[in-house]
Amino acid sequence: MDMPLWRWSATQLASAIRNKEITSREAVTACLDRIASINPELNAVVSVQADDALAAADLADHMVAAGTTLGPLHGVPVTTKINVDQAGLPTTNGIVAFKDNIAKDDAPVVANLRRAGAVIIGRTNTPAFSMRWFTDNELHGRTLNPWRPDRTPGGSSGGAAVAAATGMCAIAHGNDGGGSIRYPAYCTGTVGLRPSFGRVPAFNGTAPSERQLSLQLISVQGAITRNVADARLALAAMAAPDPRDPWHVAMPLEGPRRDHPGVAVCLDPAGVGIAPEVEAAVRKAAAILHRAGYEVSWRDPPDVAAAAKAWNDFAQGEARLTLSAQIEQHGDALARRAFALMMARTPELDVPSLMQLSAARATYLRRWQAFMQEHPLVLCPVAMETALPYGVDIESEASVDRLYRSHVFLFATAYLGLPSISVPTGVHEGIPIGVQIVGPRFREDLVLDAAAAVEHAAAEAPPLLSS
To answer: pLDDT digit string (tens) for 54-75?
Structure first.
C-alpha cells in the first residue's frame, strides 16, 4: 500500500499485522513520528508513552511470530483520553491540581483496548473537568482544529478527534455525556460513535466518589476514528464486560437483520434555526440513503426540544450541586467562566425536580421507542451550524444560548441514551460538515450500516489531513 503507515486505518493495520505484512513496531513508530512532527503545533496528545508503546509493539510482534491467538486490535496504535484511568499515569482531566492523580488500575475501556491487543501510545487533551465544547485548559493548553485554528476542534474529546484526524493514532478513545464524541468528530471530519448507554463499561478508581446520577445514566465511552469500519472494530473491542460497571449490559453487537430499515429525516423540530449548509448536508445524506434502498420519510421524532432541556436541567443541575466547589477551588479561569455561564441558564435543582427529571427520561425514551418501531433510524444534524468560533461558551449568556441551540440534537439523544454516530459528508468554507444518525438502544449495527452507506457515497467527505 503506497502511503505512510500513519495514514492506514485501524482495520488495515490490524489485518496487515496479523498477516505479517507489517509489524506493530512499524505502525507504532509511524504514529509516534507523526506525533513528533505535528503535535507541537496542534497540542492534541498531551502525554506520549513512546517507550512503553514500543515495548508493547515488540511484544505484539512476538505474539504474531509465536502463533498466539490475537485480539481484533492486535498491534494497532491507539490513544486514550486524560479523563479515564490508565495504570501508572495521572488522570488529570485537564486540572493542574490533579497532575499527580496517579491511577493504580486501568479503567474498563482502557483494559478492554489492551485485551483486544491495542497499543496505547499517548493520552489526549480535554478541557478542565471535561465540561466545555472547546478543548483548552491551564495544565495542558489549547488544542487547535487543524482545519481552521479559529474554530473549535470540539470538546470535550477535542484532543482525541484531532489525533485521529491527523493520523497520530488509528483509533482515539473518547467519552460523550452531551456530544463530547460526536461534536469533535463533526468539527474535524472524523467519525464519532456514541454507543448505547450500558454498552461499554466505565469506572474510574481515581474518582473520590461515585459519579452523579445523571452522568451514570447519560455519559458513555466510545471512539473517534477516520472511517465507519474502524468505529465498528473499536466498538467490538471496547464493549467487553467488566464487573466494575453495574450499568453494563452484555448485549450482542448484531441484532435481527432488517434490510434498509425506515429512516426519519428531521431538520429543525425544536425551531432553533438551521444553517443552510447543515440543511444541505442532511438532505444530501437523505438522498444517499434513499438511493441505497432505505425507506426515507420526513418525520420529526418526539420531544427533541423538551429532551434537550431536560438534559441540561438534569445534568447541569446536578453539576451545580456536585462540582461547583471543585470548580471554584481547582478550576482554571476558563472552566470557572464557562461553568458560571452554564449555571446562569440552569434552574436550581431541588429534590422534586430531580425526581421529575430522572423520571421524565423514561417518558421521552418510551415515545422515541414507539416512534422507532416504524422509523428505526433518525437522520438529523449533529449541530445546527458548523464548528463554532473559539470561545463562544465563555463570551456571554447570548453566545452560550447560541451554543445550546446548535447542540439540541446532541443533548436530546445523550439524555435518552441512544446510540448515534457523526459521519462526515463534505467541507464547507474550509471546515468539515456532516450528519448524525440515531438508532434504537443496542442497535449500533443499524447505525453503523447506514453511516457506512453515507460515507461510501459522500465523495467530498474530508480526506485525512496530510499537512
So the answer is: 999 999 999 999 999 999 999 9
